[in-house]
Amino acid sequence: MTTGFLEISNGEKLAREQIPHLPFDEFHETALAIVKEGGKVVQYFGYQDDASMKLLAVLRTDKLLVAGCDAKESYPSFTQTCEPFHMFEREIAEQFGIRPEGHPWLKMVRYHPNYRNMPDVFDNDYEQDIPGNYPYYQVEGDEIHEVAVGPVHAGVIEPGHFRFNCIGERVLNLEIQLGYQHRAVENLLYNVHAKRLPILTENIAGDTTIGHSLCMAQAVESLTQVKPDKGARIIRTIALELERLANHIGDLGALSGDVAFLPPANYFGRLRGDFLNLSLLLCGNRFGKGLVRPGGVRFSLSDDVRKILDERIKELRLQVEHVLDLLFSASTVRARFEDCGNVSHIDADHLGLVGPAGRACGIPYDVRRCFPTEHYDQIDIPENKKPSGDVYARARMRYDEVLQSLSIIESLIGIPVETNCVNDINYNLPADSFVVTLNEAWRGEVSHAVLTDKNGKILRYKVKDPSFHNWNGLSMSLRDTGISDFPLNNKSFNLSYCGFDL
Amino acid sequence: MLNTLKNRFEQGYRTCSYPKEKPAVFPRYRGRPIIQKDVSQEMVEMCADACPQDAIDIALKKIDMGRCVFCGTCERISNGAFVQFTGDFEIATSKKEDLLTNGDLPALAEHSKQHFKKLFGRSLQLRQVSAAGCNACEADLNVLATPFFDLARFGINFVASPRHSDGIVVTGPVSRNMKTALLTTYDAIPDPKVVIAVGSCTITGGPFLGSPEITEGLDTILPVDLFVPGCPPHPLTNLHALLTFFK
Q: Which of A402, A464, B127, B226 has its CB 3.0 to 4.6 Å from that of B196, i.e. a possible disulfide?
């Protein structure tokens, strides 16, 4: 099945010549065969090498697999028969003007001109405002009405446009148009001075600072063959779990607020801040900015910091447990959460949902368990999943993961660690190399892929946030749901706009 | 019911007493930078060279807090001899040029516009627009509504409609795709109105400097009244800025 693709491990440095370069048809057939038998797409992107245009795919089964090919200017779309390629093909079309013929839903992803000055696949005039010439999906009928929301929303929240087609209160289809946050991050990443790399990756999505920083740091470490010491790996693991805790707890508070149960909404809102402050305790920034650098971390877990962290976690655990109990034992909350916004296991599998959103639909994939990095190979991560795929399952997934993250941090605080803090180092990347890194951030699988050219310069830096997979999950959850349940469902996914828009 | 009450007692009263007392911030927090002028030129150049944001002005020996992301690189490599980040979170300014600093900042209260205090001192309703922000600035504005900060006790609220607001709080480097929506929101706010730029992205473009997709400085497209630096600004920095400027 996997003939032609090379098996690699997470964060393994490869010479580019080691990556199988297949004829296009063979690449096409093999990739489709792997994904149709249950494989998933981790990365699938285009890049320009000298004058030629190439494609590269990283797929996962229980292993990671890689292969590439020369790109054609147009080709029969993979998505026609294999949905997990859907977003990736649209992204390639937008970035490089390569047309996937017969793609069932060929629309722009982030709304920008392609990088090769090719004719635009979508016939957009980029002098016009987003979303250009695109006709939104429409349902016809006398009683159908459309609701358009955004890009500016009612709260303190990132921008995006939501287009609902409804009959009465019932949503028949939700179409989500993003791209408002597009900052051209990928282009900056391979054009700027190396000293800016950590700052840029920290700001791809501020709520996933550690997740993206780890992917970047591991990629650079692998390419330069630097191994961070054990202390650094433990501190990074603690930081990633603190990030998960702060966000999951914030989400549970927001969910509680959306079903009008205000005590936990307020308590979790405050507790979330307490966990953000523990990141500040560790590195001086509430979002972990400034902590992770290639080679290790910039701040140690000194005895005084460890002592405060230990005391605070002990104190917070009790409060978190009590508020979790308050939220989940309220029958009114369960009545609103249960059977709201269902996404079936089959749909989730076809869309390739990752992270807690995927696990809530019975897909247990977790990078920490399947392709562990940092200290996770020493930690027993349970196989998390829920069968029901509704708001309750997504909330309950967070409940489980909050308690697990607390246990992970408690077990790691006890290990006395020393680390040589890194200052911002200068490094030279090796020529003609490739690496792909994956980490389980709080929303799911984050992945960065780096290719270098013959001078050791970054040729292509590809970023994938878990939200790239999961936004369509939110669309699916709204099918046949009351439009008034949109806020609740939206919070239960809580996806990243800027991580998607790059 | 009993469970709800039990939790209520356990939670207790959590609101901080700022501005009466300054809450303690953990020591690794990096707030207002102080510059030591009497260091060697090499040291200044070394720091400027290492600064990922190119925020250090070598000739003036000053640091631009509008570009700075408070990563602390300059403090580390100069071992505090050139730049030291203090625990002072009260760092907002009313003029962009004041952000280029040697550590002294003008007292914000004296520089706020007196008619703003008269108009908005008792009630200030703000519309927040995220224009390509990374969600960190947004998150640390959002927490002002939580019990610890409790912004509403000062008569300041974030509202849903620009029609109901007295001003706009912008975060993010204003992407090309978000520019029109931002300007439309601004236009929808009735006069007189205030504009507040939160975070280094909004003030200068921050980490995204050089990208053709962003705007390098909100003040190039809107008249900004208040600049709140940081990446993101600490919630207390935001709180200080709002209270000092309008109260």
A: B226
Q: How many CB pairs under 8 A join A and B?
A: 207
Q: What is the interface pTM, i.e. ipTM, of the complex?
A: 0.92
Q: Which residues pair with A47 in a beta bridge?
A: A54
Q: Is residue A468 part of a domain?
A: no
Which of B52, B135, B235 is closest, CB to CB, to A496?
Answer: B135
Q: Which residues of B touch A181 (CB under 8 A)?
A: 130, 132-133, 172, 175, 177-178
CA distances in angstroms from A303 to A181, A184, A422, listed in the order given: 41, 41, 19
* Non-local CB neighbours of A391 within 8 Å, separated by 6+ positions: A255, A336, A337, A338, A340, A341, A488, A489, A492
Taking the domains of chain B in order of start, what are their residue ranges? 109-246
A321 and A443 share one domain: yes
Chain A closest-CA separation from residue B197 CA (Å): 14
Domain range for A87 is 6-130
CB proximity A317 to B under 8 Å = no
Q: How many distinct structural domains can be found in chain A?
A: 2
CATH of the domain at A246: 1.10.645.10
The class (CATH top level) of B109-246 is alpha beta
| pLDDT confidence bin for B147, thresholds 50/70/90 | confident
Residues A214 and A104 in one domain: no
Nearest CA in chain A to B132: A181
Cα(A133)–Cα(A131) distance, rounded to whole angstroms? Answer: 6
Chain B residues whose beta carbon lies within 8 Å of the beta carbon of residue A269: 143, 145-147
Helix (H, G, I), strand (E, B) or coil at A117: coil
Of the candidates A259, A293, A266, A289, the residue with the CA atom closest to the CA atom of residue A276: A289
Those of residues 320-339 in A touching chain B at CB distance below 8 A are: 322-323, 325-326, 329
At residue A165, φ and ψ (nearest 5 deg) are: -110, 120
**A356-389 pLDDT, tens digit each:** 999 999 999 999 999 999 999 999 999 999 999 9
Whether residue A140 is contained in a domain is answered as no
Q: Which residues of A touch B214 (CB under 8 A)?
A: 183-184
Nearest CB to A181 within list B52, B132, B141:
B132
Claim to verify: residue A123 and residue A233 sit in the same structural domain: no
Flag whether A387 is in a domain.
Answer: yes
> Which segments of A121-201 are extended strands (E)?
144-149, 161-167, 170-177
Whether residues A218 and A353 share a domain: the answer is yes
Decide if B178 and A198 are in contact by the 8 Å CB cutoff. no
**Residue of chain B whose alpha carbon sits nearest to that of A496:** B135
Residue A492 lies in a domain: no
pLDDT tens for B200-240 read: 999 999 999 999 999 999 999 999 999 999 999 999 999 99
**Residue at a domain's end among A130, A149, A182:** A130
